[in-house]
Structure formats: structure tokens, C-alpha cells
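pasting input
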Amino acid sequence: MTRVVLVGPPGAGKGTQATALSQRLNIPHISTGDLFRTHVGEETPLGREAKRYLDSGELVPDAVTNEMVRERLSEPDAKSGFLLDGFPRNTKQAEVLGDILSENEEALDAVIELKVPEDMLVERLLGRGRDDDTEEVIRRRQQVYRSETAPLLEYYSNVLVTVDGVGDVDEVSSRVLDALGKR
Ligand code: AMP
């Protein structure tokens, strides 16, 4: 059973690592950004509400986000563990995640921080070419990370493991697996 949260600034490689580790550990990769993008693409009511936040790099309001995550975590595949990528993004969301897990008598096994130097982040994002990867929105997402999300490192200090996120995908995956004691 592996319940893991990946944290790190936009461009740290959370999505890439979560995809690789999800296959390796056979647990679902749950990305709130991907869930939002699917809703936006399908023009669901949730997607119509979320779009302007994604477009500007702001956080989608907690009520919307938390409800979406609660539903996703209630699906059967998440019972065997999960890799959360992009959630929680502030301490309120972390509290809600804690509530959801303790309602099921579950807990996180680890919070992995992927650490990458700042100048590499923007470079990686500009190379990725997603709709919200314009320079202005990237800058805003980094600011939001520093003010809203970075406090989670303190919040989770007792389960936090910091992993060097510089290197090729397999190298970084190996470090994460080591950190999880899975290698
Ligand atoms: P990501 O794919 O993780 O970079 O997320 C892309 C965008 O989705 C973010 O810039 C936010 O607008 C939104 N988003 C993703 N996860 C969250 C979250 N946990 N809380 C609020 N907004 C989120």
C-alpha cells in the first residue's frame, strides 16, 4: 500500500515522475491539473468554472478542487494506494486530504519533494508548450507555489523526503523509489 503526495514547483517533474512511478508501483497517478484539463476540454460545468484559473495560473477554489479529489479518491483503484500530483496545493487542501484519509482509517506514507533549481524550472516549462505555459502565467504559477504551496513542506515535515529532481527520468525515479524504500 503506497499513498504518496508529490510536491514541488511547476516544472519540477511531478507529472513525469508520477507517470513512471504509477506504472512501476501499479497505483493510480492522480493529477488535479490533468483532471481539470479534462473537464475544460469536455466543457463540463466544472471545466467552465475552472478554465479562467488555469488560464491565469491561479488556484481553482478549494471547494471545487477538494470535491473533485474526494470523488476521485473514492474510486476503487485508489484503494490500493495512489500518487497525488498537484494536490494538495495549500494547507487547507492538506487538511481536507487528511480528513478524507482518516475517515477511511488511512494515512499518507510519504510526501516527496522534488527539488530543482529555479532557473531550470522556467526552461523546462517553456520547452513543454502547454496552453498555460506562457511566460507570464509561468511566473504567476511560481509565485503561487511559493506563497500557497511551499508552506506544505513545513506542514508535512514529519513525512517529507526531499529528492534531487535534476537528472534523467530513470535516475530521478530511482531516487524516489529509494526514498519510498521500494527498491
Ligand atoms: P498542474 O497541471 O498541476 O500544473 O496544474 C495546472 C493548473 O490547474 C494550476 O495552475 C491550477 O490553476 C489548477 N490546479 C491544479 N491543481 C490544483 C489544486 N490542487 N488546487 C487548485 N488549483 C489547481
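fyi The chain has one domain: 2-181.
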